Amino acid sequence: MAIEKKNILNRLYLLAGAMFLFALAITYKVIDIQFIQGDFYKEKAESLTVKDFVIKANRGNIYSSDGSLLATSVSRFDIKMDAVTVSKENFEKNIKGLSKSLSQMIGKSASYWENYIRKGRKTDSRYMPITRNLGYNDYLKIKSFPMFNLGTYKGGIITEQRTVREHPIGKIAERAVGYDDGRGRVGIEGNFYEFLRGKNGKRLKQKIAKGQWKPLNDNNEVEPIDGKDVITTIDLDIQDVAHHALLSQLQKFEAEHGTVVVMETKTGEIKGISNLGRNKEGNYYERLNYAVGESHEPGSTFKLMSLMVALEDKVIDTSTVIDTDDGTYKVYNRTVRDSHRGGYGKISAGRVFELSSNVGVVKIIEKYYKDNPQKFIDGLNRMEVGYKLDVPIKGEGVPTLPNPNDKEHWFGTSLAWMAYGYGVHITPLQTLAIYNAVANNGEMVKPRFIKEIRNQHSVVKTYDKVVINPKIASQATIDKMKVLMKNVVKKGTATNIYNKNYELAGKTGTCQTEYWTDNTQYIASFAGYFPADNPEYSCIVVIHKPNKKIGYYGNVVAAPVFEQIAHQIYTKTPVMDEVSGYKQSPELIVENFDRYNVKANKKYETMPNLKNMNGMDAVALLENLGFTVVFKGTGKVLNQSLKAGQKFDKTKIIELTLS
Q1: What is residue 633's three-state secondary structure?
Q2: For the packed helices 88-106 and 136-143, what is the interaxial angle rounded to 10 degrees?
Q3: What element of type H or E holds 352?
Q4: Within 13 Å, how many C-alpha atoms sit on residue 477's CB side?
Q5: What is the CA angle 175-66-72, rounded to 5?
Q6: Using CA atoms, how far apart are residues 366 and 332, in angstroms rounded to an integer?
Q7: What is the pTM of this model?
Q8: pLDDT tens-digit profile of 381-414?
Q9: How far apart are CA 523 and CA 164, in angstroms?
Q10: Mind listing the pLDDT tens digit for each residue in 529-572?
Q11: Phi, psi (5° rounding) for residue 479?
């Protein structure tokens, strides 16, 4: 019994000792937490309930050359309410006034808002949604409402600011303007983001119920610094013309995608650029920057480069006679064919270019470079063909030329196919740079998208003209090619766009693609400049995979886009002060004026027939009759919403569709 008591006492002593040690451990931990690691745990606790939130800076604006907005950041404000923080006195004094103001601004009745806010106060809601996506003016207005005008603590208003990127001119030039967001960095937005993005600020917020965060005060801890503005070279009028001319032709020929670029000859400034692709629904939108990024076989527009090499090496002159035979020419086991059945027979080298004879240009290059193809490649390289332009837009396509030293990829047919644009890959912008150099008397300038960077009214950085090559060829060669390109339009493959009032110069291109499949497709193109004798602008049009049943040749599909752009630029911003040879009005103008005069002076009781009437004349006529008119397109009237002969209804808006 005594032994058993002793054992129990021993166990009690051990238990007491253990409890004492446990108490010591707890005491030590308390002391450690309070005094040794107190600051650490305090900071950790605060970090879970209070933290800085980033306030994104407004991005800088992007402007066209005439000061029109292409892209801008717009502030948007979301309004919440802490219904608990407002004192009872302030709440009851202002609730009806606040409810009435919210009703007038947002909608719903004043009684709805009063019941909604009272319910939130009763349920201790500290983050009640009021409204969202307000513009800056509405934000200032709502801050002045009763109760809210007392501020965050006394009035319970909680403001959260966001920035939204908007394009005021819509989808026009959207791809060239680009973006800088979760999708990546593209176009001007992406490549000049360091200037545009600004510097973010921060604001301290406290965690409240339901995982929500409430600002601790009305002021930012660090104010955001807005980004700088980018002034582009884009001319909004030319951009608009280029976009709609391309869109119209893509729709007409049901093409897959296309691009057009208009460049100022002497400076290299890009005045208009449009890249349109078709979606599954058949609608066209700015999908990819084809002009900069799509490297493809150019087809016959490459004949300019081929002929220039031969002229520079003086192996031919434009008068050299070439026998195109029956329009076919065998190169090893493959046949080169002209689009003109039966061929052109014996013609000059200049005429080979004007008529775009595949056989003719292949025979020239084969005859003089077959034994030394590297000499031909070197000639192209001297003209900067085969090199990137290094434009400030990411994703520039890599140009490729076959290399005779690459035995694995150089074949017996490589030189011949290269002569008329096959086996070569080059982007539309790279092609345009060469054509622009010819227009610019041999001086090759880098295509330029940006004029300057501005910080409000001060210039931060300017982007001047950059000369890539002061002379890509001799003046003699340049002068000969200018004559030939003028003749392409006057008496060659592009006579369909000839206009004696404003002469154009350029080269058509029709290139097969997917010819390795059972369903060969085509790429139609036209590259050139205008006016032919005093170039101000160069332009390239490339349209991929038009509906073959409708048409696919470069002169039919692409050249009309070029002509329409040139016509609009001549009409709206004449590049010549006067046109010689017109002592009196042209007959067509007189005829149109007389026709309009008859219609304008006639009294109408029913809607007149406006079909085929000049669009601007039709608008003037209808507005003089008291109608409101809207119209789409340019040119002559195709359709009118109020049909000819119908009774007048001046309450309706008349819609005109122009060609």
Answers
A1: coil
A2: 150
A3: helix 349-355
A4: 23
A5: 50
A6: 12
A7: 0.70
A8: 999 999 999 998 888 999 999 999 888 889 999 9
A9: 38
A10: 999 999 999 999 999 999 999 999 999 999 999 999 999 998 76
A11: -60, -40
